[in-house]
Amino acid sequence: MTTGQYTVILLHSTSHAIHAERLLNRAGIPSKMIPVPRHISSSCGVCIRVGRPDREAAQRVLQVAGVEIEGTHDI
Amino acid sequence: MIYFDNAATSWPKPPGVAEAMVRFLEAVGANPGRAAHRLAVESGRILYDAREAVADLFHAPDPLRVVFTKNVTEALNLALRGLLRPGDHVVTSSMEHNSVMRPLRALERDGVQVTVVTCSPQGVLAPADVAAAIRPATRLVVLNHASNVVGTLLPVAEVGAICRQRGVLLLVDAAQTAGAYPIDVEAARVDLLAFTGHKSMGGPMGTGGLIIGERVEERQLEPLVRGGTGSRSEYEVQPDFLPDMCESGTPNVVGLAGLEAGVRWVLEQGVETIRAHEVTLARALIEGLLVIPGVTVYGTLDAERQTATVSFNIIGMEPSEVGLRLDDEHEIMCRVGLHCAPAAHRTMDTFPDGTVRFGLGAFNTMAEVEAALAAVEALAREVR
Hints:
heterodimer; A: alpha+beta; four-stranded antiparallel β-sheet; B: seven-stranded mixed β-sheet; 11 helices; 13 strands; 15% strand
């Protein structure tokens, strides 16, 4: 993984991450569920990774759907 | 062989249910939400798909407010024990199953006040009687959507409107209607809907759940069970968000894969189509039983006002004897006795002997109804 290409979005739990994945998929934003990088958080097991250029669009989709975002980090 | 015990559990299951369960066991198998590898994520997706299917069936807006339990009894216990505190008042009906009555009687010992509104001997509940029972301390009204004994539908939407107006939560036990009768939790103003997966939703045993509406705040709901959720693993206190706060321990993903397939089948057929088929069968069964001399049929006798569960007795023959002979001599499987609902039987005046219950389902046919009527007729002729 090349540093600087991606943004990870942290959510409450795996259920929420899958919910977010579905919403992003419907909105046409490519995403992947990955383990939360340890240096970011020891919280939930998985998070959503999107391309850095999709960062704002992805956040907007989730916010509109009322999904609580725990954090957004560029990696 | 005629299976008329669908009110206890549906059988056979819709096509695709067993296949979905086998697929999970053979190709996925992992624990959802506990790791981030592909199989764990796939398992999590199956669990999510099941939540989404259930939310679709009941027109619930948020799949993450669908909490899975092992059956409707656990879901009802979660809602009742989770919301009611000493000093609270709760209203229920005299047609409830012990899955509501027993938790309420236990809560009563702990200082919760319980009012049981009496239904008619046909199992009919007057919404005005519920309204009259509501007091300032009333926190919750809990009602079955349809009686497991006699099938009579209760007016949940009318009670929902009353509850909303009076600032009271409504919990509905949809064990007998989920998948067999249209339910829209928003339109009917149902705050909490408890369902079981293994009846008309077509899933296997070990599946059920509670839909938790927006009016129920997470902080007001005490989980029944606490433990690992795969989330907030750095904390020793239970998460405070749904569904995790109410779903500790490894879930029954194999069962829920089957439930999802069952619910998708129900949605493909259409609940209205299934309902129309069951009304046709129930009407023929009720009308056929009514013309057999020596047979008493219970309930409203109107197929439109009940599920396809029909209770009756043959005068002069114990229900247990009727059940045994229907099985032995006619290969008809039904349930006899008190059906885990002593209050309902007292209301119907069938306590303590109980009734013979034919629980019809989506896969029963008119030919089976006709064969069963002939069998009851033959038994009734003996004791005349």
